[in-house]
Write a structure and sequence with these properties.
Length: 383
């Protein structure tokens, strides 16, 4: 009886999404090695609900990887000045660690490195406390206007060649890996628009692909010293112009040649949200293990899962083993997402397949929830 509502939901999703139904009816074969979720680490007041979500939703759906965007939401001892207000404490993290270990879920913490050091009008903790690390300090976040803007400010970057930046960065990386008892770390590294800027005295005359590859390699080597592996988002390693994928899910600022300059044991999280672009094959043929990542379009997410299965079935064994599976991504706060998740999960879908909360407006806000539910339905029936 405990999971009856989840099983009923699974059946309804199989009816709503024919591609999901077709996949379940096919020969299951071997399960995908990676069945993951990437989501923000919860705030302390949402921790109990988050643990319930893991045990009652992710476990029955056979998820085996949880990437938690911790960033500054931990009570760091190495650099307490970087803590968010009211962060997770050691005992909070250990509750997550224990539950994931109990259910065989690999737990990987994430801190956004290189890019994503600001958001809108606010510098985040690293550049707030260490403004000297800013790659382009003349661009002021307080002057931010919505994209596109004259300064092409989306998120700030730190200077990868600053002589002191890694003393700080690696201290918090080691600490968060230790407390999460993790054998891997996710460094983000996505949507890096500021790199090798003219005003930076260290980077201005450097090749952007070399700068990006150098930072990836430095982080990878640091982790390897303690037997840990590096995971990153893959967008900066794709040529956005040649592929036509664009400057968000791929690179327009010439970082993409770095794909041939980084160690092959870096795990690539290949995200595409509007279309199921087949770049996972590109990464696998380059020698990288890769998982495809979806977000808020159920049809795209299910196609991505199907593609990973097909690639594994139709590739030479050496290449097939690199297609590792699927990781679903959530980009709202964990507490806010879980509130919407349980609201929509309990809703009966309307005849047109949309969640019936507030018509089209609810549809726009609920894509991430509906997509995750569709993915869970597939993993439940065919892990």
């Amino acid at each position: 009886m405990k999971h009856l509502s989840f099983l009923l939901l699974t059946l309804s999703l199989l009816l709503l999404f024919p591609s999901c139904k077709n996949m379940v009816e096919e020969e299951a074969g071997e399960p995908l090695p990676v069945r993951g979720l990437a989501i923000e680490a919860p705030k302390p007041d949402a921790l109990d609900r988050f643990l319930t979500f893991i045990e009652e939703e992710l476990v029955p759906a056979h998820f085996n990887l949880l990437i938690l965007r911790v960033d500054w939401n931990y009570a760091y001892e190495s650099h307490p000045e970087l803590r968010d207000p009211n962060p997770l404490k050691l005992e909070d993290v250990k509750r997550i660690v224990a539950l994931c270990r109990e259910h065989g879920i690999r737990l990987v913490p994430q801190i956004n490195l290189l890019g994503h050091q600001s958001w809108a009008k606010q510098n985040l903790a690293l550049l707030r406390e260490y403004p000297q690390f800013d790659e382009n300090p003349s661009v002021k976040t307080e002057n931010y206007t919505p994209w596109p803007n004259p300064e092409r400010l989306y998120c700030k970057s730190y200077c990868p060649l600053h002589p002191e930046v890694h003393d700080v960065v690696f201290a918090v990386v080691d600490e968060v890996c230790d407390v999460f008892e993790a054998d891997a770390f996710h460094a983000g590294m996505d949507e890096v628009f500021y790199l090798g800027e003219e005003e930076c005295p260290r980077c201005h005359d450097k090749d952007k692909a070399d700068l990006f590859a150098g930072e990836v390699t430095l982080i990878r080597n640091h982790l390897a010293e303690k037997g840990r592996h590096l995971m990153i988002w893959g967008d900066r390693l794709i040529d956005g112009r040649t592929t036509g994928i664009g400057e968000w899910e791929a690179s327009y600022n010439d970082t993409w040649p770095a794909i041939d300059r980084i160690p092959k044991d870096v795990f690539i999280c290949d995200w595409h949200y509007e279309r199921a672009d087949l770049t996972a094959a590109y990464f696998a043929l380059k020698g990288f293990s890769v998982a495809t990542c979806g977000y808020r379009n159920p049809e795209v997410c299910l196609q991505q899962i199907d593609d990973q299965r097909r690639f594994r079935a139709q590739s030479a064994p050496e290449t097939a083993a690199r297609f590792q599976g699927y990781i679903h991504t959530i980009w709202s706060g964990a507490g806010h997402f879980l509130k919407r998740y349980y609201e929509l999960k309990d809703e009966k879908p309307s005849q047109n397949g949309k969640a019936g909360v507030n018509g089209e407006e609810a549809e726009d806000r609920s894509g991430d929830v509906r997509s995750l539910l569709a993915v869970m339905a597939v993993f439940t029936q065919q892990p």
